[in-house]
Model the fold of this input.
Amino acid sequence: MTTPKETLWPMEPHTKAKHDILRRYLQAWFPILSRYNGRIVYIDGFSGPGSYSGGEPGSPIVALDAAIEHRRALKSEVVFWFMDERADRIEHLRTTLSRREIPPQFRIHVECGTFDRAFGSALDALDSMGSAIAPTFVFIDPFGFAGAPFKLVERLFKHPKCEVFITFMVDSINRFIEHPNAEVVNRINEMFGTSDAADVAKTPENRIDRLRMLYQRELRKRAQFVRYFEMRTRDDRIQYYLFFATKNELGHLKMKEAMWRVDPDGAFRFSDATDPAQLVLFGSNVCAGLGADIRTRFRDAGETSGAIVRRYVENETAYLKKHMTEALKEEEKAGRLRVEATKHGGQARRKGTFPDDARLVFL
Done:
């Protein structure tokens, strides 16, 4: 993907998929965070002009519309901070926003500047005052690997209730990782927050996977939950990953739900995995292997509960409760699972269900 030079450029199919994930997640995030906080913040660090040459909405409008959809449910002040280094694109974004009716509790700040400088200055100001940032979702969507240093992600996660959604341009990184210009290599190191990327460059085998795993490792040091979504081109080449990182269990679950809802039947193959050695293809038989994974995890534990298995699936795998249910049905049918459960009040468990109070024994 080449960096566009024009103010507006055509929307590519993978961008639409990315925006679908963003929109679906924010439709859940805005109401949940607004319920418990007086202010929430959405930051788009590489906002672009707000639309594409075909008239499709850009990420700032996708986010704003997701909040407007739920404006009656949003009790808190919602702050939007859009920034881009191109003055022509910022001017187009301002014009686009001026045509929209903005709810009174929304505050919109549009800035011409680079993400690293603007956001870094904001964090500096908070640190100097000893203040914590309000619950914040930061969308970091560069065309390449410059301008999104990992140190800002690390600083963000020193504050509670913060999340990041990052476009990790692994194809560009892979092409430039051995560049003779030390400044280019330094920018790659800044993107990772470590110089370990140089070790990856020494061995050509599986370099894309190892670069992804390195970035995933660094995120996991700062956030409890890390989820990634793979974007491939029409010729089946990995172009980039979308990384989501949070410390919040519910946020992680909602992002997984958003990812699973994206249509898997387009020209791309979208994938997501927790285990670096495991690839979960959207549109494939999602229950294949999940039952065996659960059985291996809990067989030696003796009796366990439906709640423990559900939390394992939701927190530590790429799957959702509905996938767990289908996998456990197959395990029970094959005689590899014994279920001893009663509902509250003594009612017998309905066959094919695995409620939280179910007692499960894997054989």
